[in-house]
Amino acid sequence: MIATNDIVLHIDHVHKTFAGLHALADVNLDIREGETHAIIGPNGAGKSTLLNVCVGVLPPTQGKVMFHGTELTGLKPYEINQLGVARVFQTPEIFGDLTVLENVMMAMLSHRDGAFRLKLVSRFDEQGEIGQRAIQALRERGLGEHLYHLGGALSRGDKRRLEMVIGLVQKPKLLLLDEPTAGMARADTNATIEILRQIKDSGMTIVIIEHDMHVVFSLADRITVLAGGRVIAQGVPDEIKGNPKVIEAYLGEEQV
Ligand SMILES: Nc1ncnc2c1ncn2[C@@H]1O[C@H](COP(=O)(O)OP(=O)(O)OP(=O)(O)O)[C@@H](O)[C@H]1O
Q1: 228 lines ligand 1 (CB under 6 A)
Q2: What is the DSSP letter of 69?
């Protein structure tokens, strides 16, 4: 039995309909403090829609999402971010014409000061506390040699790493990762798994959407399987691997 205060995110009877299409149909899911929870499922299962509902990008048609007991429904994405929910996108959302260091400082300033404001740009001061913390965070994640390179000039793998640093410097209580290894070569994927393992070991609560089962089974404590907008299975990795419904709906077509 999990105590209620161990629940970080409570997804409660969430439905999302797009012009008659049930992208999410009565999804219930609890994310526990400190766990890495993978959400898997075939294309079109509703995984990204669920994440978008959780971060306030999409309103649910019905149901609600609670974060540490606070209802998120109706809040704006930046308000949800300020409560401690950070999302790393499928496509890296970084500023290509700012340096790597400026990208991280921008995230720290905009998180601290609320919605992004352009005048923050004049406050980049790498000798200050924010600058020093940004440099340290980038060095810890292997981006120390790229501090003054433009975000847009990084390799795909490094852009992903930069996005992760941007997520982490906001000191989230919950990190949501949308396919963090999509399109990566195996070496970059393995490097990303290592970074995520360090983040996981720091005690962070993580939700990860991922198609690559090597990544999922390397990191997940529990797995929820979506298909056709519904939760069809939930459990620890060994339960999911052996679940006939999951194999039929999904794993049969993926390499496990
Ligand atoms: N903004 C939208 N407008 C209309 N339909 C949408 C919208 N977003 C998603 N859908 C539909 O909702 C369903 C679920 O899509 P979603 O992107 O959440 O699935 P997914 O599991 O993330 O898929 P993938 O693994 O391919 O990213 C799909 O049928 C999709 O076409």
Answers
A1: no
A2: T
